[in-house]
Amino acid sequence: GAVVSQHPSRVICKSGTSVKIECRSLDFQATTMFWYRQFPKKSLMLMATSNEGSKATYEQGVEKDKFLINHASLTLSTLTVTSAHPEDSSFYICSATAADNEKLFFGSGTQLSVL
Amino acid sequence: GENVEQHPSTLSVQEGDSAVIKCTYSDSASNYFPWYKQELGKRPQLIIDIRSNVGEKKDQRIAVTLNKTAKHFSLHITETQPEDSAVYFCAASGNDMRFGAGTRLTVKP
After folding, report:
1. A98 pLDDT exceeds 70?
2. B41 φ/ψ sector (left φ>0, alpha ψ -120 to 50, else beta)
3. Chain A contact for B97, CB < 8 A?
4. Chain B within 8 Å of A2 (Cβ-Cβ)?
């Protein structure tokens, strides 16, 4: 099956710093990528949807200036958590889909811990 | 928008028994219903999916049923094994994909 690579797998940072998470589709062109946040023992909460070359569409309640998403190419999307605070600590997962296939392929997730 | 409800939130069965997880959705335009299995701290893995033009689909020990009229779909796992223990998420996709809250399945040896 298709492979989505997500890095880093774990980040520990100080409050106020920015953290960038990368999501790459390794063997297919991802026309759409999704970013989710997952709290312990909770479901995947969609944060935003990004299409290559256009601005991301954010879900209600998600601050676009806080969570910057860049989908610069058909194989790469990045999520930058700006000025991270302890409440931003969470598990972040990306997923990607190709234009002709609605199946989602997930990255391995990034555990962010803000001290 | 779409709203997906999933029940139960936790499910414990003995090895060899069957497990059933149920989901309902609200958007009649949804036409694709995947199920994901997620182990702790790992990515969700697609285990089976069904489209709205099909009422049932089976893959070895796993089956999914869909009732479009009632807007509900279910995951059935037969002959459960300890390695089936995980969190299972249903999802419904039309204009966008929404996930259920998840079911933590525990299979006791």
Report:
1. yes
2. left
3. yes
4. no
In which residue are the tokens 């492979």 written? A3
Residue contact A49–B102, C-beta within 8 A: no
What's the full length of chain A, in residues?
Answer: 115
Q: How far is B105 from chain A (nearest CA, A)?
A: 12
Contact A109, A5 (CB under 8 A): no
Asked if the Cβ–Cβ distance from B49 to A108 is below 8 Å, we say no
Whether B40 has a pLDDT exceeding 90, the answer reads no
Reduce the DSSP state of residue B52 to 3 states and report it: coil
Q: What is the mean pLDDT of residues B7-34?
A: 95
Burial of A97 (0-12, 13-18, 19+ CB in 10 A): buried
Please give the C-alpha separations between residue A68 and each of A56, A62, A65, A81, A96, in angstroms, as whole numbers. 9, 10, 6, 7, 17
CB B9 within 8 A of CB B101: yes
Q: Which residues pair with B63 in a beta bridge?
A: B58, B76
CA B74 to chain CA centroid, nearest Å: 6
Tokens read off for B86: 């995980």
